[in-house]
Specification:
By secondary structure, this protein is mostly helical. It is built from seven helices and four strands. The chain has a two-stranded antiparallel ribbon. Strands 3-4 form a two-stranded parallel sheet. The longest helix is centred in the first third of the chain and has 32 residues. The radius of gyration is 17 Å and the shape is globular.
Length: 209
Amino acid sequence: MPLPPLTLPTIRHLVRRRPASPHPFVRLPAPAGSPAASGLPGLPGLPDLSAKRVVDLLGAAALAGLFALPLLVTAALLYAAQGGRVFVREPAAGLAGRPFLTWRLRTDAAGRLGVTLKRCALDGVPQLLNVLRGEMSLVGPRPEPRTDRADRLFVRPGMTGLWQVSARSDLPWEEMALLDRHYVESHWLGMDLAILAQTPRAACRHRRS
């Protein structure tokens, strides 16, 4: 049975369904300066084994295997179309403001191929490497080089998120910021899975628009 589109009423319904008390599958935003906010687990030297991180690792590994061959073919086509570098790295602010570089396909001089990749958001597939490295999550606010909204730094930036599956670029900036804040304050595993399930449909919808 297909999931309903993640409209604002649906998002608020998901927020209301979030467990009121800590749950093994919920990762709440950590206070600034805490070990969790710095990207480290509660005990130094131990890996992050939260349910969200486990889903990120398993999902990113599966998607990397699925997209490996198409990515190689696309990279070859991009190289033939524009020459030079196929990948670019862009600065972003991660968990607790920690800076890192995101991976992305270079599409600025690839003509129609580049336009298609950007419209389908496939130029960001190399960010699976950032997810595997722990710099990003599959679901979270869009990575930005800097932000004046400190709440975004309580979670890892994501490859997809609430505003991407709601209406993509059709949303005004203020509503994108509101959806990011909804996610930061209320995210839980069920919301992440719903967003991931809606992402392919959102990409196809954007491709046809």
